[in-house]
Amino acid sequence: MKSQISQTAALGLLALLLLPFALYSVDFGQAGLRNDLDEPHYLRSTQWAANLAIFTHMVTGAVITLLIPFQLIGPLRRRAPGLHRWSGRLIAIAATITALGGLIYIPLRGTIGGWPMDLGFALYGLLTLGAALQTVRHAKAKRIAQHQAWALRFFWLAIGSWLYRVHYGLWYLATDGLWSNAEFTGAFDLAQNFAFYLPYLIAVELYLRRKR
Ligand code: HEM
Predict the structure, then answer these.
(1) Mind giving me the DSSP string for 120-139?
(2) Which residue ranges have their beta carbon within 6 Å of ligand 1?
């Protein structure tokens, strides 16, 4: 009971911490979709498909970021299973659009950090897409243990984009941007192409193995 309360409080706090990034993302995305951005890196009127992909992904990405903590709150899940299912479906659809948006943008335009970032973000997109689909597939088949395992993997991927910004924020506070530059070619930047999701996924696998 005590651990349930602290878990709920931790997830509620996380939702609050995620909120500013979700709002930033939805604001960025909708301004881009309305062609109302002073942003030469993203907005290129000649590349409508890349624009549509990246700005839509920001809006749907915000939906995932906002909703994902609530899926893990046990008491909410038990009291309102219908809500859990419907918001789960919505998150899975949003995750599919988000991942595909990023995956379409990468070959069309390429990321700001060049091929290492293309690679890191493309792998992130594929893993996010796979985890979202597996979570829903196992839920539909009532394979609860597998559903929970995939949901946990998906959770860490879903907050990965926010973690990426948290890593940068903390690193810049601590080191003033050591091994990082505007072209994203510093040692820290290169590590971050994978460090915002891979270590967390490894930790999840170790946790699941111990639990089994
Ligand atoms: C999980 C929710 C996600 C949110 C809220 C989100 C949000 C954002 C935002 C706001 C940007 C603009 C960068 C900036 O802050 O200036 C961005 C860029 C980008 N995102 Fe996402 N994203 C998410 C997931 C993903 C996924 C799954 C992929 C996978 C392919 C992806 C690929 C990209 C790419 C390729 C860029 C452009 C990088 C660049 O060249 O600057 N994102 N995202």
Answers:
(1) HHHHHHHHHHHHHHHHHHHH
(2) 25, 28, 57-58, 61-62, 64-65, 98-99, 102-103, 105-106, 111-112, 121, 124-125, 128, 158, 161
Domain span holding position 101: 2-211
Residue reference for tokens 């829903």: 136
Instruction: Name the residue of 38, 98, 184 to mutate for ligand 1: max ligand atoms within 8 A of Cβ.
Output: 98
User: Could you read off the pLDDT of 57-111 as tens digits, one per residue?
Assistant: 999 999 999 999 999 999 999 999 999 999 999 999 999 999 999 999 999 999 9
| φ, ψ dihedrals at 61, nearest 5° | -60, -35
Domain count, the chain: 1
- Using DSSP, state whether 1 is helix, strand or coil: coil
What is the rounded CA–CA span in Å between residue 119 and residue 37?
A: 27
pLDDT for the residue 147: 98
CA 72 to chain centre: 15
